[in-house]
Amino acid sequence: MTTPADVPDVRDPEQPGRLLTIERDALIPLLRGRAGEDFARPVAACPGWTVRDVLAHCSAALTRVAEGRFEEGVFSPESNDRDIADRADWSDAQVVDELERGMGAAGPAIAGAGGRLDGLALGEWVHAGDVREALGEPGAYGGAGLPDALALLARITRERGHVPLHADLDDLDEPLRLGESGGERPPGRFIGDGPTLVRLYTGRPVDGVSAFELAGVEAKELNIYG
Question: What Gene3D superfamilies does this protein map onto (predicted)?
Answer without folding.
Answer: dinb family like domain (1.20.120.450)
